[in-house]
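Hi F.,

I've been meaning to write this up properly since the lab meeting, where we talked about keeping a consistent format for the predictions we share between groups. The idea is simple: the sequence comes first, exactly as it goes in, then the structure tokens exactly as they come out, then a line or two of notes. No screenshots and no reformatting. I'm using this chain as the first example so we have something concrete to point to.
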Amino acid sequence: MLVSEINPRRAAAALSILNLAWSIGAVVSPPIIAALIVEGARIGRLSGLAVLLAIVALYLLQFRESANIGGSRTNLVAAFGIREWSRPLAAAFGAMFFLNVGTENAIGGWVATYANRLSSQPGARWELAPSLFWAALFCGRAVAPTVLRYVRDAKIAIAGLLVTGLGITTLLVSSTLTGVFIGVSLAGLGLSSVFPIVIAMLMRCFGAAGSQVAGSMFALAGLGGATLPWLVGYSSGQFRDLGVGLVVPLIGTLIMVVLQFSNYTSLSKEESRSSPP
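Output, unedited:
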């Protein structure tokens, strides 16, 4: 939220860079953690990580005053942005957060199992499927700040969701690992810019109140991340077919296309009404 507020004109690009840093950490952290673990040690096996986190915590102390975004929060109504939920766009944004993180987790969490069940050849590298998904997500976030210089953020999000839908469809109709790899890569590339763009649009829509309603939005994002992967597993168990379960993120992606288009249209109308003639 701080990054979004201090970069009002290029919030989506700044947030893409922030999420790119997160992606790098997600890729390089496992081997670093593995290197820090000392076999047989009971104390201090993660002390290196603890020291790094302590340094970051000390550094963040200097922001405790300047990072008070949105003014003081004197009651629960203000803290959770309850008043802002009366706006029609709030529910649409909430659904976007829920579905976006849920779709990411569902694809990234289940695609390796899907590829493994699809492949019957010994030595097939089915375990590469989730790596390709996160690598495509990483690449998309790396190029997003440049693309955002020329194309409006909301349009990029809509295009990305359409690419994600194409990727999931390719994954589901493919009978080979190559098709699965292509599909999951397209899905990761399409989703790469959606989350930072939605945050930027949220702040643009709600202004100073955005930091208040954001707490609820992030809670919905976490709920989606926990719910949709479970729903994929439940659906596949009921139909005894993981492909049926993976229709769940496809449906979620199609709903997000409609929601994003609706948010873009509504926000454009609000901005045109508030801009001087």
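Notes:
The chain has twelve helices and no strands.
Residues 2-271 form a domain with the Growth Hormone; Chain: A; fold (CATH 1.20.1250.20).

If this format works for you, I'll send the rest the same way.

G.
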